[in-house]
Amino acid sequence: MQDLLEIVRADFAKNHIGREYDLHVAEQGFTDYARLGLPFVVSGLVIIFVTPKTDGVVEFHCMNKGDGKDLSAAVIGFLKDAAAAYETAVTYYDNPRVSNLMKFSQVPVTVTKIDAGLDKTYEARFTLRS
Q1: Spacing of C-alpha 17 from chain mean position
Q2: What's the whole-model pTM score?
Q3: What is the spatial order of strands in the sheet that 40-43 belongs to?
Q4: What is the per-residue pLDDT across 32-85, written as a single tens digit (0 to 9) for each?
Q5: pLDDT by residue (tens digit) across 99-129?
Q6: Domain tally for the chain?
Q7: Strand 88-93 to strand 57-64: parallel, antiparallel, or no bridges (unpaired)?
Q8: What is the CATH number of the domain that holds 94?
Q9: Which residues constitute the domain of residue 123?
């Protein structure tokens, strides 16, 4: 669990400083999430939180202790595995640099600027099966 909390801490420091919550809240949120048995995947330095939706869609969100290459590799692996159960994967984010990583996804992706609030400036929708 300590290794996973290190990922949470690193991601918080890179992406969540100045939010309405602090590091303790982020750590406790992850600990509670894991204790409840809610789904997540760990790939190297990345935690991917998984939320099945309806109609063959899975939503996912990442916490990353590494760099863009670590994030890309983790997402590629997740998308390949998710294709067995889902037709579409979707994620939301604010950082426009993440859009540049989409070219490495190895599956068709549509990025849309949706401006739907905090952590939802962009939507990336991956077509896992045709």
Answers
A1: 18
A2: 0.91
A3: 40-43, 46-52, 57-64, 88-93, 122-127, 109-113
A4: 999 999 999 999 999 999 999 989 999 999 999 999 899 999 999 999 999 999
A5: 888 888 889 999 999 999 988 999 999 999 8
A6: 1
A7: parallel
A8: 3.40.630.30
A9: 2-127
